[in-house]
Amino acid sequence: MSQAGRALAYAFESGALTQKRAFLLRAEELPLKELDAEQSFRPEHLRLRQRGWSVVPRLDGGAYEQGLVLLTKHKEENFANIARGWALLAPGGQLVCAGANDDGAASLEKHVAKAFGLADKISKFHCRVFWFDKGTRVPPDYWRGLAGLQPVGAGPWLSQPGIFSWDHVDYGSALLAKYLPHDIAGTVADFGCGWGYLSRHLLDHCPGVTRLDMIDAEHRATEAARANVADPRASAHWLDLIAEAAPTIYDAIVCNPPFHAGRAAEPALGQDFIVAAGRALKPGGHFYMVANRGLPYEPLLKEHFASFETLADNNKFRVSRAIR
User: Fold this and answer.
1) Are residues 119 and 165 located together in one domain of the fold?
2) Which of residues 116, 146, 176 is at a domain's end?
3) How far apart are CA 165 and CA 28, in angstroms?
C-alpha cells in the first residue's frame, strides 16, 4: 500500500471520514469495503483482480455518494481525475483526495480549495487527505478538458494525461522514427505504444506492414492510440507484456521502453521489454529500440538475439537494431 493509501485508510479508521457507497480512482488495495475500483494500469489492475477486487479500466456513469481519488505525481492527471470524480458524484456527494507531500499534494490541495472550497483535511504519513462536497461549483474548464482525449500541441495527435509524454512527441521516439527503415514488413508490433506516434509512423512509411499490434499497459494509452491510428491494419491491445503473452509472433518489433530515462541503476523495466521482444519475434525477426544511452542493455541484447548493432548514438539516446 502506498503512503497516500495508508493516509486515506487512516482517515476512515480515525473517524475523520465515514465510508459510503464509493468509487476509487487509481485504485490500490485498501482495507475499505464496497468500492467500485478504477485502475487503468494493467499490472495493478491484474493484481487487484487476483485479490478478488471488482475493478475496471475506466468507470462511466455516476450518482455515487462518495468518491476517492489517489493522487499521482502528475498535476494534469490529478486535475483530470478530480474533474472525472466530480462528474461521477451525485449532488451533495463527497470527493476525497489523498496524495503524498513529495508528489505535490499540498499545491493540489490549494488548487482544489480555490476551485471548490474544502470541507476538511488531515495530514498523516507525510501525506495530505482533503475533501469537499459537490455543490454548485463546477471544475474549471481546463480540468474538465483534461479528462478526455485532446489535441497534442498544433499537430494531428490526440492524447490525455496519464500517458508517458502525453502532451508532446518525446525525443527518444522521434529519434527512433528517424532511423526506422521503410522496408519493415509483415506482422509488426509497437511494444509500449503510448499514444501511437511510432505506430502511425510505421503505417505511414512502411507499406509492407500487413498487421500492426499497438500494445501498452496503460489503458489510457490504448484509447489514444486507437484514436490516432485509424488504419484497418492496426489494433490496440491493453496488456502487461511482462506478465502476459503478446497476441502473436512478429516479423518486427519497435520499442521505446517505458521509464527508460530513469537512473542507470533502475533499468529493469526496459530489460523486461527486451526479453519480451525476444520471445515474441520470429527467427530472423528485427527488434528496433531506443533507450537512454547510459542504461546497460547491450549484454541483454547479446543474450537474447543472434546479433545487434547501433544505428544512432548521441549524448542522450542510443538506437539499436537486433536480429532474433
Assistant:
1) no
2) 146
3) 24
Domain shared by 154 and 222, yes or no: yes
Do the beta carbons of residue 80 and residue 147 sit within 8 Å? yes
Residue 15 scores a pLDDT above 80: yes
In this model, does residue 171 exceed pLDDT 60?
A: yes
Q: Could you tell me if 221 and 165 lie in one domain?
A: yes
Reduced to 3 states (helix: H, G, I; strand: E, B; else coil), residue 21 is: coil
| Secondary structure letter of residue 41 according to DSSP | B
One domain for residues 264 and 313: yes
133 and 155 both lie in a single domain: no
Q: How many domains does the chain have?
A: 2
**Dist. CA 300–CA 133, nearest whole Å:** 52
- State yes or no: pLDDT of 259 exceeds 70: no
Any idea which of 54-63, 195-204, 254-263, 289-298 has the lowest mean pLDDT?
Answer: 254-263
Name the one residue in this structure whose C-alpha cell is 518486427.
252
CA separation for the pair 221, 218 (Å, rounded): 5
Q: Give mean pLDDT, residues 89-107.
A: 97
Which long-range contacts link 227-234 to residues 24+ away (Cβ below 8 Å)?
A: 227/149, 227/158, 227/196, 228/156, 228/157, 228/158, 228/195, 228/196, 228/197, 228/199, 228/200, 229/196, 229/199, 229/200, 229/203, 231/200, 231/203, 233/203, 233/209, 234/199, 234/203
Is 260's pLDDT higher than 50? no
Position 263 pLDDT exceeds 70: no
Q: Are residues 230 and 124 in the same domain?
A: no
Residue 120's DSSP bridge partners are 131
Query: Which domain range does residue 311 map to?
Result: 150-323
CATH of the domain at 190: 3.40.50.150
CA count, 13 A, side-chain hemisphere, 121: 17
Q: Are residues 260 and 298 in the same domain?
A: yes
Which cell numbers hold the place of 232? Answer: 484497418
Residues 121 and 217 in one domain: no
C-alpha cell at 307: 546479433
Q: What is the pLDDT of residue 295?
A: 82
